[in-house]
Design goal:
Number of helices: 1
Shape: elongated
Largest sheet: 5 strands, antiparallel
CATH class: Mainly Beta
CATH architecture: Sandwich
Structural class: mainly beta
Number of domains: 1
Number of strands: 10
Strand order of the largest sheet: 1-4-5-9-7
Distance between the termini: 54 Å
Length: about 140
């Protein structure tokens, strides 16, 4: 059997929204800072064993530029029998400058493992994000 006949496309509306900024070396928790920088991500059409990109939208709400240094992506189980470990997603590490009140898109690799069980077919994984940035 070919992969297309044995595996269906996975609905990968991976949804997550997190706010966490580290400005001046001090982490800001979402409950403590309504204006922490925002991270959103989404990917669809995951197929077992096929790598694709998770597009992260990072928005700077501040009146000054920031430099994003890292973004950590955490995956939650999609359903009973479909564990988070079936999804391989990379974290972002680097230096991306975001201007005052601007948004950038970052891309990180993501893949549903070829060994993912049938329980993962048609399921959605919830993603959460945390990031660190400094004032530019």
């Amino acid at each position: 059997m070919t992969m297309s006949s044995t595996h269906r496309r996975i609905a990968g509306g991976l949804i997550g929204l997190a706010f966490l900024g580290a400005l001046g070396g001090q982490a800001i928790h979402p409950a403590q800072a309504a204006d922490a920088f925002h991270i959103r991500g989404r990917v669809g059409g995951l197929e077992p064993g096929v790598a694709t990109m998770l597009v992260l939208r990072v928005r700077n709400p501040y009146r000054f530029p920031i430099v994003v240094r890292s973004i950590r992506v955490t995956v939650s189980d999609a359903a009973r029998g479909c564990r988070a470990s079936n999804l391989d997603v990379s974290n972002f590490s680097g230096h991306v400058r975001i201007g005052s009140r601007r948004m950038v898109r970052l891309r990180v690799p993501i893949m549903l493992l070829a060994t993912a069980p049938q329980a993962c077919f048609g399921e959605r994984f919830a993603l959460s994000y945390a990031g660190k940035a400094i004032r530019s």
